[in-house]
Amino acid sequence: MTISTEAFAALERRVGVLTDRAEITGLIDGYLISLDTVPRGGGRFDEAWARRYFTSDVRISTPVGQHEGIAGLAEAEQVTLGKFERTQHVGANYLIDLDGDRAAVRWNALMTHVHLATTQRARGEDPGGHFDVGGTFTGEAVRTPDGWRLRRLDVQAVWTTGSGPLTPTPKAEATLRDLAGGA
Question: d(Cα 144, Cα 150) in Å, to the nearest integer?
Fold first, then answer.
């Protein structure tokens, strides 16, 4: 079977789109998995971790605060996730809208945060308690010389169960109040 030059070019474009979508999905999955595996493996978030997933001009907004630029991002993640014994972040329903070397991205996530034993003791609770969040991630990925990276990420909590960490940020406290109906 022979294929025309035009048909081959169209097929090549389709394969390129599928490859980009697979690479962006891999970027997102790798990021979510890293949130759970870096600290559990005894490691720390570092600049190499940040550069693996984000551009140098990244802008991130989450229920616990905002961060701009890659400088200090790893340390901020270490502080945030260091408030928990372990976590599990699961992403699904990826929407990827490609536009050349840019892509609008959106996905849903379930995030489980198991409290530190010290948190449980301070609250007079049995070990193993956790704080669960269902939320959405939206943002922008861009193609860089090192592959796809996230340039913008906005994390929105849709619902929560359980108590948050002992020392939440003011923004996190406001988000939890809003989700509870302003109580």
Answer: 10
